[in-house]
């Protein structure tokens, strides 16, 4: 697996604090470690969580007001109605612990309970962030040795979602088990289980999101220590290279996902961009609309959490249309919870399929090529998809009916996608 810088460059420009965040390092490859046994939380995250997270756009500059604005915008834009309910504060809300070990917020978040009440008053839910280490990735106070106290604090505020980021716990692992990768991984799993038990003890149904960059094949053990979702890779950024590379790392992980427990290829960058150039020539290059569409479509195919990360108050109508495409969201939220698999590639064109409830099927054909304008002369093989003869479906980006035939030519612009739902595949 590869890793990327911790935040999108757009956020970096906004955010000097975030620039100090530790980046997600490449995972070690130790021997398999046995997972401790404890039941996952029932009834939570039966479909992939949907919402918005502050990190990809605001980084370390996020404030209470930004979170309130995001909540307002989720309602005003119709995103809430489309399913986006979690409003997640990422790193940099934390202040200091007092003499009793109670963690306080910093000045950017004057009253977390009041903020939670505000978010809840909009019919939305509040997410928060911490680390099993002494410090978060952006060097703020984290939960090491205060897990129970912190979980109780979150519950008292009314928090509904916790992203738990390995960050400085890597130092604990390296210090306590030098030169023993397997022992380090056992420490990591135990740390995630400790917070799992602390969250459960609160009695609040808090979604538990692991962020440890896929280390030690997290998909194999996360559900056994209460994980509702787990990052499978290093950090995403708002570039095609990052999105496409993360997408390819998901091949082979489908069997680990299902209701209550999901692979997380990281938050959405739809509507974001990256900074190119330095000084006076620095400018933001947004993802193209085709890239936004493909990113969103493929995260839906992957049954990924759909956590938007864009500047909601300044969202363009085109970006809003991508994020609120209900047919694509329905693929993501399909109750069967079966993730897509990569079926075949032909040159620069990739074909993925996903089995849906009621015997339906989704097919994604994407053009990963950059150097030519379209996929000519790609021909879609239905036989390779296990289909027999012509198929009737719906093109989920035009909303129109589409007839697929074996070996039909499909022309797609660079980085664009064809996403088709077939209600009754034959
Ligand atoms: C890590 C995570 C990111 C973000 C930052 C915050 O890099 O992978 O998603 O939470 O930390 O510091």
Overall pLDDT confidence: 92
Task: Give the helix proportion (percent range).
Answer: 25-40%
Q: Can you tell me the residue ranges where pLDDT is under 50 for at least 5 consecutive residues?
A: 1-23, 25-39
First-last Cα distance: 36 Å
Assembly type:
single chain
- Described by the principal axes of the CA atoms, the overall outline is globular
Evaluate the radius of gyration. Answer: 21 Å
Derived from helix and strand composition plus strand pairing, the structural class reads alpha/beta
Count of helices? Answer: 13
Strand order of the largest sheet: 9-8-7-6-5-2-1-12
DSSP strand tally = 20
Tell me the strand percentage band: 15-25%
Ions and ligands: alpha-D-galactopyranose
Main β-sheet, in a few words? 8 strands, parallel
